[in-house]
Amino acid sequence: MLSYQQPDASGHFGRYGGSFASETLTHALTELREAYARYQNDPEFLKEFHSELAHFVGRPSPVYHAARMSREMGGAQIFLKREDLNHTGAHKINNVIGQAMLARRMGKPRVIAETGAGQHGVATATICARYGLECVVYMGAEDVKRQSPNVYRMKLLGATVVPVESGSRTLKDALNEAMRDWVANVDDTFYIIGTVAGPHPYPMMVRDFQSVIGTECLAQMPGMLAEQRIAAEHPDAVIACVGGGSNAMGIFHPYIPHQNTRLIGVEAAGEGLDSGKHSASLQRGSAGVLHGNRTFILQDQNGQITETHSISAGLDYPGVGPEHAWLQEIGRAEYVGITDKEALDAFHYLCRTEGIIPALESSHAVAYAMQLAKTLRTDQSILVNLSGRGDKDIGTVADLSGVDFYDRPSMRGHAVKGGPAA
Ligand SMILES: *Cc1c(COP(=O)(O)O)cnc(C)c1O
Q: pLDDT digits over 129-151, tens only?
């Protein structure tokens, strides 16, 4: 077994990670590090965390053998870790609960977050309602327009959504605004970051909270494999999509010491890895500093962040968590790309073959699993992190398929591509 102890005391994963934040945040970050160090192994804290995961989120989430899909691919057995079945429909809630519990213990009655597609905002608003915390979510004005159902969800849950009008009016502008708020209100405010990015201790802390995913899999997989008469304890490969990288780190981390299990992160290749229209920071980016840490980012010669693209809003981010940059460098994890079209095909395929509507983000992981399965034997296995459900994406999919689902008569004769005639 590989021994793996990362990050170091200052939050470095090799030459990645660390803490690049303005001096005005030094105090807040120190306070957060101390609080996390105090509670991360505290039995009472962990007991409450796992109780919340059991009763509010619905954990453990099942591992499911996708029997029809596996048979049709004709190779490895494919298993899905069903994070889509969590309350609020994705893995994000695991991390948000951990951070909100810290906020309460630190005596911070006010929570801020930033969100792009709105998924992290909804998860944060959810837990703030549960705990009676004030919740302010920063969101680019452009995203507020594009993601109106999620904006309304956050409002229903009692959050204040602040549209950010500066810059390109998207995620990076919302991030800057959230930072500004934090600097101004450090005393009573906790900043909940939604992925394994940000300055130390966020990448480590978010990974730890999300590691419940992989820890459950370590316990669940031996039985699932035995049922398929596979004499192994661990899958041959674990696959997850990578936006910021939190669902991937969550399922990868407990498997890192088990070197016979390949860890494969799937980035959004958009219109192709060489098209310039993608979000593949690890495969097409270079080292630089973004959002308080050193990692791989998509930048031009002058260090300006470049435009990213993906069919799935949750993968559309110009950076990636620093631990992924490290895992790539030491060769413990591999990173591949799946295009918009491949992800969309996998989305439709999983709907019709397994009766599961996956998030477009997760569809990237499913698509790569389908390709890889064909190259493996039937007594080998692949575990896919199905990070979220696709209800939020049906509007996008309908648009791409030329269907207006609010206009019922027009749906007649519009069989979804690949489906039976209506
Ligand atoms: C936000 C999101 C992602 C991407 O975030 P990671 O931090 O890379 O996990 C992936 N899947 C779903 C369903 C999401 O909501």
A: 999 999 999 999 988 988 889 99
**Which residues, 6+ apart, have CB-to-CB distance to 186 below 8 Å?**
25, 27, 28
CA of 360 to the centre of ligand 1 (A): 10
Closest CA to 328 of 422, 216, 245, 229: 245
Give, using CA atoms, the residue closest to atom 13 of ligand 1: 388
Alpha helices, DSSP H, located in 132-261: 141-146, 148-156, 171-185, 202-210, 212-227, 246-252
Look up residue 359 and give its two tokens. 């998030």
Q: What is residue 422's predicted lDDT score, i.e. its pLDDT?
A: 40
The response to whether residue 324 sits with its C-beta less than 6 Å from ligand 1 reads no
Question: Tens digit of pLDDT for each residue in 355-377?
Answer: 999 999 999 999 999 999 999 99
Torsion over CA: 241, 245, 250, 251 (sign): positive
Count of beta carbons in the 10 Å neighbourhood of residue 356 = 20
Ligand 1 atom closest to the Cα of residue 210 is 9
Residues 309 and 105: their CA atoms lie apart, in Å, by: 39
pTM recorded for the entire structure: 0.95
Residue 81 in 3-state DSSP? strand
The span from the CA of 42 to the CA of 20, in Å, is 28
Q: Establish whether 114 is a catalytic residue.
A: yes
Looking at the DSSP bridge assignments, the partners of residue 112 are: 136, 191
CA quadruple 295, 299, 300, 305: dihedral sign: negative
Strand bridging mode 293-297 / 286-290: antiparallel
